[in-house]
Write a structure and sequence with these properties.
Blueprint: E1 2-5, H1 10-21, E2 27-30, H2 41-44, E3 54-56, E4 62-64, H3 66-76, H4 87-104, H5 110-117, H6 124-143, H7 159-173, H8 182-191, H9 195-200
Helix pairs in contact: 1-3, 1-7, 4-6, 4-7, 7-8
Bound molecules: glutathione.
Glutathione binds near residues 33, 38, 51, 65 and 67.
Length: about 200
């Protein structure tokens, strides 16, 4: 498989973690968001939205949208499951994933921040306030959904951790005070003891 990837993209980071957890071999092709490689006609032929990640399967078929990619990997590579079989438990984990993927990430990604500072003329300081606001709103709710651990949904690594770790990485990168979130940080730190997470991290990419 070939992952079209940007090291700091949290959506691509989710896919790197999952490929590692499921021991699926893959190569990475860098799509540099800072030099706007993702807006090139060549890349948009692969991903019509011009976003990372895109996963190219060994037979050449393409999957876009990280959640669709993760669902494909979960269904196709079930030996290392990232969702439990119990429907309620699976829904509980998906709630945490969606809190991040649907309610935090979309309002804080690069093109939204660029629209704020570029088109709308928002200051860098107000951009940071915006960024922190949406993470705080999401993390306040997420913190109360996490139990005693060690991982976000209990004893095993699940998709909740796959979504949580990149979002915490972003929060730290943008200087958010994480002291109100001891359970989120505990899950993040426990995941970072595992090689699959260490190898997927932006600093290793
Ligand atoms: N919902 C999409 C979001 C993808 C997305 O927003 N990717 C970001 C990087 S994390 C991106 O390509 N941003 C480019 C831009 O905003 O211009 C997914 O989960 O794959």
């Amino acid at each position: 498989m070939e992952l079209f990837d940007y090291f700091r993209s949290s959506a691509a980071y989710r896919v790197r973690i999952t490929l590692n957890l499921k021991s699926i071999p893959y190569t990475k092709t860098a799509v540099n968001l800072l030099t706007e490689d993702h807006k090139s006609a060549e890349y948009k032929a692969l991903n019509h939205q011009g976003l990372v990640p895109t996963l190219k399967l060994d037979d050449g078929r393409l999957i876009t949208q990280s959640t669709a990619i993760l669902e494909y990997l979960e269904a196709g590579y079930p030996d290392v499951p990232l969702l439990p079989t119990d429907p309620f438990e699976a829904a509980r984990i998906r709630s945490m994933c969606n809190l991040i993927a649907c309610d935090i990430h979309p309002v804080n990604n690069l093109r939204v921040l660029k629209y704020l500072t570029g088109t709308l003329g928002v200051t860098e300081e107000d951009k940071l306030t915006w960024y922190h606001h949406w993470i705080i709103e999401g993390f306040d709710a997420l913190e109360s959904q996490i139990g005693e651990g060690p991982f976000a949904a209990g004893n095993a690594v699940t998709l909740a951790d796959v979504y949580l770790v990149p979002q915490v990485f972003n929060a730290l990168r943008f200087g958010l005070d994480m002291s109100p979130y001891p359970k989120i940080m505990r899950s993040y730190d426990d995941c970072h003891m595992k090689s699959e997470f260490i190898d997927a991290a932006p600093e290793a990419s």
